[in-house]
Amino acid sequence: MQGFETIINSIIKLGIAMLVGFVCIKTGYITKEQNNGLSKVIVRVTLPILIITSLTSLEFDTQKLKNSIYVLLVSIVVVAFLFAVGTVMSKISKMDKSRAIMHRCMTCFGNVVFMAFPLIQALYGAEGLLYAAIYELANDTCLWTLGVYQMKSIEEKSFMGSIKNLVNPGTIAFVVAFVMMAFGLKFSGIFGEVMTGIGSATTYLSMFFIGGTLALVDFKHIYKRVWLFVLTAVKMVIIPIILMFVLKLFNLGEMVTAVIVLQAAMPASTILVILGMEYDGDVLYCAEGVFITHLLGLLTLPFVYYLMSVI
Predict the structure, then answer these.
(1) Contact predicate 165/186, CB 8 Å
(2) What is the value of pTM for the model shown?
(3) Are 266 and 80 in contact, with CB atoms under 8 Å apart?
(4) Cα distance between residue 123 and residue 193, in whole Å
(5) pLDDT (tens digit, 0 to 9) for every residue of the chain, 311 residues total?
(6) CB atoms < 10 A from the CB of 277, how many?
(7) Backbone angles phi, psi at 237, to 5 degrees
(8) Contacts of 136 (CB under 8 A, 6+ apart)
(9) For residue 163, with 0-12 CB atoms within 10 Å meaning exposed, 13-18 middle and 19 or more buried, which class applies?
């Protein structure tokens, strides 16, 4: 049960880092603007470096290439399935258009970077991070095309405009890492140590940012959001359990299966709050959803991992 101890320890560490960020924003020690600035540092600097340094530390072979292709294909199907489930739930609950869009997106797009990368790296190392990055590629492709297209008003909708968002620091770093892996290149010496150190900072900076984001949520009416608790149960427990059984039928391997299941089980993406603000979505509902899923995720993620170890 060493893996279970690892995820418990990781969740506790991540939870403490989130709490620090939460307290700093709640007390005004760090401002909302400063916290948003931190997200830019993560997305534009530390995360791309983490992706490159981690993936280039791998010895790439034919099996990893096959696994990567499997992960990409399965991830696209999983993201599409999550979106369909979110659509059904929003129709059953008879939400208005703005809230329904945010509900679909929260069901579909998880925190597959800030929350997942540190956790999966702790559990499965650089190879696990490789597959997590590929899931992120599928997730981001759908987020910046289908997700943004959904949120924009009818006049503003432009599918090609959304596609331009695919060129971002994360995808560029992913491509750079693959090119370096293909040619056997990697950072070395003092420069390599510095780059590795900067990349490793992503873990706690990400959790600090999430905690700071959650501090902005108004708790007064959050217990009334029944469908957000339903979303949490469906997205973060029921669907991952279904995936466990389905993916085992394809014999993708324990690590590949585990990474896909854990990525699908992640809390709602924090970036949806930012996109909701930009496109006049139901920001309050989205922020409450991000808070609930992250809070309960500290319990559901170890539970899902435990089930994978016994099923």
Answers:
(1) no
(2) 0.80
(3) no
(4) 22
(5) 556 777 788 788 888 988 999 999 999 999 988 988 888 888 889 888 988 888 788 777 788 889 999 999 999 999 999 999 999 999 998 888 888 999 999 999 998 887 888 889 888 988 998 899 899 888 878 887 777 777 765 445 555 555 666 677 877 888 898 888 888 888 889 999 999 999 888 878 878 887 887 787 776 767 777 889 999 999 999 999 999 999 999 988 999 999 999 999 999 987 787 777 667 778 778 888 888 898 899 899 999 999 998 87
(6) 12
(7) -130, -60
(8) 112, 113, 116, 117, 170, 263
(9) middle
How many CA atoms within 13 Å lie on the side-chain side of 280? Answer: 5
DSSP letter, residue 60: -
- 6, exposed or middle or buried, with CB in 10 Å at 0-12, 13-18, 19+? middle
Sign of CA dihedral 178, 181, 182, 183: positive
Strand partners, 268: 110
The CA-to-CA distance between both ends of the chain, in Å, stands at: 14
- Residues 6+ away with beta carbon under 8 Å from 18: 207, 208, 210, 211, 214, 294
E-state strands within the chain: none
Two tokens, residue 94 = 């008879």
Q: How far apart are the C-alpha atoms of 251 and 25, rounded to whole Å? A: 45
145 CB neighbour count, 10 Å cutoff: 18
Going by C-alpha positions, the residue among 13, 19, 21 that lies closest to residue 212 is 21
SS3 content of the chain, % helix, strand, coil (to 5): 80, 0, 20
Structure tokens at 290: 């991000």
